[in-house]
Sequence to fold (412 residues):
Amino acid sequence: MATAQGKSLLIVVVILLIVGVSAVLLFREADSTDAIAPDGAHRVGVRIAPVEYGKRKMPVMMWYPAEPEPGAATYLYNTKIRGSAVLNAPPDRREAPYPLVVFSHGLGECGCMSVYYTENLASFGYVVVAPDHRDSMMCHIEGEPDITFAQMTVSAMRSMGDLNETVATLFGDYLAEINYDFSYRALEAKAVLDRVLEWNREPGSSLRGMIDPERVGMTGHSLGGFTSLVVGGLPFRCDVKERRPGECDSQNASLDTVDFCCMDAIRKLEDPFQLRDRRVKAILPMGPAMFFPKLEVAATELEIPIMTITGDDERMEVPWKPIWTLHTNAPSPKYVIRLRETDHMTIADFLVTRAVTRPLYPGYRFNFEEKAQAYKDYSVAFFDLHLKGEETRTAILRKPSNRFVELWQDTG
Fold:
């Protein structure tokens, strides 16, 4: 007859077994997950090439209208997302040159973080390029991630879904190491743009003649949204003054408290617009980090069309107030879209290969595909109007076509 101690031990073993099996099921990685398919008429090709910048080679992913062989296999991204693009497919030059859109990923993410978004733009006749920035950690265009999905999940659970706390847990050491200096991102984006336009001119290049250098846009998520704003010409308006001792203590700062006018790279700018690239003619930041001093003034100096897309989740999305400040003070044409029941990571599909994703992130729990459709539809309509001069999709820029969309617009 089993003793009470033996029964207790058996119960503990069973509980541990259940917990272990549950953990495996939650954190296991699917062999692959299909991306949401693009909607445009063009088939899509994808290529990977390095761009040398500083002491490293940035992997860069490029999507473009293509003419793949019939039955060609679609590409399985390094994130385990099976897309609709075909690796190294011959480019479709029948409607070239196409507008170019540079995509900048969020802090710790990667160039292929939003396959459904980037492939969709290419299917509508855009060349889209996306680098792995220096801070890419949670995924990579090539190679294994530096931060595991288990670490991401535990961080999100510990912070109870608070975005700032999650970022601090995952990237606090890195942010302290770089002293919150993100100026490298604008420089990396400009280096990618330089090299891609060189490929566009080079005989024998697969991109030869594919890009119209006069029609360049930029888009990005989170820190990539910040990067898009910087490159697009939102200036840093800092007072030139001596700081009090301890006023610029970045070691004890966080992303929501750091004073960017304390950063050496910002204070040393000879011109508040020094990181701008005038080749960029329209910008679409998504859930952008808003690290701009005197935003009310800076916003008035933006000279190109802007659309901002963000979610409404108060804990897992960037604050709404700075986005509204940007929108109300920026010149027209300008648009801001807030998506209901949507969090900071809804733009990303690199997370959906894990079973635990949907419960953790509000944007994935219900109707993810419909919310993703909003990102697809509005980005195409915005860039079609402001890079191609086409008005065929502008109806949704005047009146929402998606039940999750709240839209504010001013076309002047």
